[in-house]
Write a structure and sequence with these properties.
The chain is about 35% helix and about 20% strand. It is α+β, with helices and mostly antiparallel strands and about 240 residues long. It has two domains: about 90 residues, no CATH class; about 100 residues, no CATH class. The strands form three sheets. It has a four-stranded antiparallel beta sheet with strand order 4-5-6-10, covered by helices on one side. It has a three-stranded antiparallel beta sheet with strand order 1-2-3.
Length: about 240
Amino acid sequence: MTETIQLGDITIAMTRKGFWIDTVILISKDENLTKSHARYVEACLIRGVGSNPRWTIPNSRTPSDDAGKLPLPERAAMEEFVDQTKTLVGALGWDLFREIRGRTPDPMLERDLPKASAHESPRFFFRGEGFTADMEIGPSGDFVVAAGSKARVRTTRTIPRGTVTLRNTLIEKGVLREEGDFLIFTSDYSFTSASAAAATVIGASANGRILWKLPDGRTYADWETSQDVSNGTSS
């Protein structure tokens, strides 16, 4: 049996067979992905799986740092492709691309840890005509849009189909409530990617990695890079 779901340029097919469990196939509806694009996406997804301790990769080969080198504009487009892929895979019920930041505590020492959470996240913002939202990174690497944030009511033709479904679901559940020209977040809500959060807020296709910003002007992508560098230096 094969199930498919579409978001923007991405189609994901899930197949169940007797000799494996699940298979996810990524294609571009415009057939405009080159081998370099594919290598870049593959490298990003492999690193994403590696950030989740619940999953292991049997293949010992890992992509090199220069895998799928792309010009900056194409890299930004592929990062949006990756974010949409993570959103779709999460919608199909897998959390293998959910990033877990920080070190897992030793169970033997856990009882000696303070009860208060040591997790701290900077606060990102996303502002524009008809929307204003704040977001933090959750302890499990999820992207939490804060209660009171305002999403845009109207949508554009570029809005991914999956985002339309998600917005409708959030409205039905009362997480989003229409008030005048806005959709108000009545509670904190966790998204699987920065782009999924941004697209829900703006009602259009969005690259959340560059749209969510810190007060000093740095984007989420800039902050993530600084975290990776810091972690690499301290290890």
